[in-house]
Design a protein that fits this description.
Arc Repressor Mutant, subunit A; nine-stranded mixed β-sheet; three-stranded antiparallel β-sheet; 35% helix; binds adenosine-5'-triphosphate; binds magnesium ion; Gln-tRNA_amidoTrfase_suB_CS; glutaminyl-tRNA synthase (glutamine-hydrolyzing) activity
């Protein structure tokens, strides 16, 4: 359908509001042109603690940075917030658009129950107070991908408020982890907008309304954070919570979780500074980088006698800096007004539920509370209790997509101690994954393969050094089992006591200096000697047995 050329007061000179039914004219994927795989890696996990803070600049100690996040999470639901159109990622442009989504006159919103339940669930999981009555408002702004000229949101009275989010913060190492809590101001239900796709070649902007009207949860955090790393860890925790609840897939590279970061700096003891807002950050790493850059930029601006203006900025991931997005606009007037086509949203709890009411017609907060699944913090506690693992290890297991499931499957299939499994999964298995930048689902080693290897270790069939050797071969994914590799390469531990004694004897004779050191009282030399015997045995000698033999021979 041909559409009129429209002029808009935005940086791009010519805007064409165009409806298309094919996808070839659209720029697909991420606007930055990064491959989706790469983006997934960047966003799905903070694989290691992030170290994004830059070196403090001169005079920085006088400044305190303040960060407040607004998070938009797309609700996992089959249909949109107020219409029956399907919700699906990467569908052909404008194929999931009802008359209501396109704002045709005469269409009315019909609230999607699933979206309300998702908001209540999320609110409860984030320790919010759930308002039994909330209101919908119109927020006006003009943009090509918002056909109504307003977004339906909950400005005056949101569905949930006054919550908190507790997350782990680590400086440099997982072992230095502490926890921090950020207050949640509110959670509101609102509509997503469509998508503008800029075609630079034609100097046009194309509009895809598939996303228009998809249900969003906007989670507004109080300005309690202080740097990029904290923000990154808070978002990662929120992502895990939403995924555990199933209220959002929260995949950042698919735009299901988008973060706006509000940043200001001030002198401690003085009122908060003027904030800038970096919009639409769609990866955890970029979020951390954008915040730390913006903190530094504001400090140097102020140190050089400049002023911070309340503006909207975006993050240029290629240059690693934030840039102004729109003209300096002052406070935008959204002309909020009540949405006349939606009555107040009324929820009940068991005590307020009217007698004889059809439970399909109402939402009972207590009933939703009863269906809440195990949240990540509880899962971590359980792991610590059940397997005696360190808290930081439980964080690591949950942080990597699919790693917890992998771990639990290994545990189910092996006789090895949980501590051994934890150490192998986090040190060896995760190390290989990271080295090759692979996701757990792409690993050539399955839980049962690793379980079998750990059984061989547990039954003392092989030494732990030989187990590492076998793992290296398993990683090649040639289809051999651990037992096959062990027997083909004759890696079984030596059981022949006399042969072991001979090996110890010849090693001692070959390294008189080490023996001398030991005799002189250098106790650490025993480890050196054990290592030498092990090497001579091609990792087939059990270090505990070698130690016993050596101690006897040297009368230690
Ligand atoms: N001085 C400040 N420095 C940093 N962050 C701040 C400061 N003051 C407020 N914030 C944060 O800014 C965010 C404000 O979000 P809110 O949704 O209330 O308003 P908004 O940004 O004006 O609206 P919009 O939804 O249109 O972006 C909150 O996350 C809050 O914590
Ligand atoms: Mg907001
Ligand atoms: Mg904002």
């Amino acid at each position: 359908m041909a559409a009129p050329m429209l002029r808009w007061g935005f940086p791009r000179k010519r805007w064409a509001l165009t409806w298309v039914d094919g996808d070839s004219r659209h720029r697909r994927g991420t606007p930055t042109g990064l491959t989706s795989k790469w983006m997934r890696r960047q966003s799905s996990v903070t694989q290691q603690p992030l170290h994004t803070a830059q070196k403090p600049s001169e005079g920085e100690h006088k400044w305190k940075a303040v960060v407040g996040l607004e998070i938009h999470a797309q609700i996992s639901s089959n249909s949109k917030l107020f219409s029956g159109s399907q919700v699906r990622f990467a569908a052909p442009p404008n194929s999931l658009v009802s008359f209501f989504d396109a704002s045709l006159p005469g269409t009315l919103p019909v609230l999607n129950r699933r979206c309300v339940e998702a908001a209540v669930m999320t609110g409860l999981a984030l320790n919010c107070y759930i308002n039994k009555k909330s209101l919908f408002d119109r927020k006006h702004y003009f943009y090509a991908d918002l056909p109504a000229g307003y977004q339906i949101t909950q400005q005056r009275l949101p569905i949930a408020a006054n919550g908190s989010l507790t997350f782990g913060v680590c400086v440099k190492k997982w072992s230095s982890m502490t926890t921090k809590t950020v207050r949640i101001k509110q959670i509101q239900l609102e509509q997503d907008s469509g998508k503008s796709l800029h075609d630079d070649l034609r100097s046009q902007t194309l509009v895809d309304l598939n996303r228009a009207g998809v249900g969003l949860l906007e989670v507004v955090l109080e300005p309690d954070l202080s740097c990029g790393e904290e923000a990154a860890m808070a978002i990662r925790e929120l992502q895990l919570i939403l995924q555990a609840l199933g209220t959002s897939q929260a995949n950042m590279s698919e735009g299901q979780l988008r973060v706006d970061a509000n940043i200001s700096v001030h002198h401690p003891g003085e009122p908060l500074g003027i904030r800038t807002e970096v919009k639409n950050l769609n990866s955890i790493r970029f979020l951390a980088k954008a915040i730390d850059y913006e903190i530094q930029r504001q400090i140097s601006e102020l140190e050089n006698g400049g002023k911070i203006v309340n503006e909207t900025r975006s993050f240029d991931y290629k240059l690693g800096c934030t840039v102004p997005m729109r003209d300096k606009e002052g406070k935008q007037d959204y002309r909020f007004m009540p949405e006349p086509n939606l009555p107040p949203l009324v929820l009940y709890d068991t005590s307020s539920l009217p007698a004889g009411v059809d439970s399909q017609q109402v939402i009972n907060i207590d009933q939703i509370r009863d269906t809440l699944p195990e949240l990540p913090s509880v899962t971590r506690e359980r792991l610590v209790q059940q397997y005696g693992m360190l808290p930081e290890h439980s964080f690591m297991l949950l942080n990597e997509v699919g790693l917890l499931e992998f771990f639990q499957n290994v545990i189910k299939e092996t006789r090895a101690e949980p501590k051994k499994v934890t150490s192998w999964v986090l040190n060896i298995f995760l190390g290989y994954l990271k080295h090759q930048n692979l996701a757990v689902s792409e690993s050539p080693v399955t839980p049962s393969t690793l379980a079998e290897l750990l059984d061989l270790l547990h039954s003392k069939t092989i030494s732990s050094a030989a187990a590492k050797q076998v793992f290296e071969q398993l990683w090649k994914g040639e289809g051999k089992t651990a037992a096959q590799i062990v027997s083909e390469q004759r890696l079984e531990l030596m059981q022949d006591q006399e042969a072991l004694e001979r090996l110890c004897q010849s090693t001692m004779e070959g390294h008189p200096q080490v023996v001398m050191d030991l005799k002189k009282g250098n106790t650490r030399a025993i480890n050196k000697l054990i290592g030498l015997v092990r090497k001579a045995s091609l990792n087939r000698a059990d270090p505990t047995v070698i130690k016993e033999i050596l101690e006897k021979k040297l009368s230690l």
